Amino acid sequence: MILDAARAAASRLFSPEFRSVFLKTLGLTLLALVALWFGVESLLEWLAWPWLHTLLPGLPSWAGWLGAVIAGILLAIPMALLVAPATAIVAGLFLDDVAEVVERTDYPSDPPGRAVPALHSLVLAIKFFGVVILGNIVALLLLLVPGINIAAFFIVNGYLLGCEFFEFAAMRFRPEAEAKALRRKYAGTVFLAGLVIAVFLAVPLLNLLTPLFAAAMMVHLHKAVSARGAGRTL
Q1: Contact 212, 98 (CB under 8 A)
Q2: Cα–Cα distance measured from residue 177 to residue 190, given in angstroms and rounded to the nearest whole number
Q3: Comparing C-alpha atoms, which of 141, 132, 116 is closest to residue 198?
């Protein structure tokens, strides 16, 4: 069930619909990071350089220009590192688009899900960003513990990502409380699916597609566990 969901999600990643969502996500992310870069650099020029000239009044005029270049290069490094997590939070705003594509193309005879309200989508996007950051901080701390190392990264991220994305997919068809209850009922399955997402997240460049892959995969998984539950009821 999990591997089927992962294969189905992966097969959609480079479809025109998904490509459109990814390009929108990446474009908005890069615009935001460029704006942040210029903002921080302007702030440094406004605050840091006057203070430096006051502290060292004998600095030649070219020192400020050289300092600005060096600061710009140094700022570019953390901005580059922020591309993946920033893409994650922006992609959170388009998860319903991904879910709608999967539901329409792979489950045309089923009733479509309801889009999560815009404010709730924003909250989910921020939560996903926080989950990724928190998960990696915990994983980095656990790296100091001998014998755990890389396994910590996958266990922590697998659990957190599995929970968040499964509940997102379920909430398109159920109230939030019911979605959480379904996730707890299939906790083992959701965790294993989260491990697949964590592996995806660990691959450089490919990790930019993680939110799209995870949303599509969990739509398939939610459909599968819902069908299993319906079968048992019958």
Answers
A1: yes
A2: 16
A3: 132
Distance in angstroms (rounded) separating the CA atoms of residues 185 and 232: 14
214's tokens: 């995870």
Q: Which residues of the chain have pLDDT under 50?
A: 232-234
- CB-count exposure of residue 226 (10 Å: 0-12, 13-18, 19+): middle
Q: Could you report the per-residue pLDDT of 47-61, keeping only the tens digit for each? A: 666 655 565 555 555
- Domain extents for the chain? 2-233
Using CA atoms of 124, 220, 22, 84 in order, give the dihedral in degrees to the nearest 10: 60
Question: Distance (Å, rounded) from C-alpha 25 to C-alpha 208?
Answer: 10
DSSP string, the chain: -HHHHHHHHHHHTTSHHHHHHHHHHHHHHHHHHHHHHHHHHHHHHHHHHHHHHHH-TT--HHHHHHHHHHHHHHHHHHHHHTHHHHHHHHHGGGHHHHHHHHHHHH-TTSPPPPPPPHHHHHHHHHHHHHHHHHHHHHHHHHTTSTTTHHHHHHHHHHHHHHHHHHHHHHHTTS-HHHHHHHHHHTHHHHHHHHHHHHHHHTSTTGGGGHHHHHHHHHHHHHHHHHHHHHHHH-
| CA–CA dist 7, 14 (Å, integer) | 13
Task: Dig out the tokens for 45 from the structure.
Answer: 């020029």
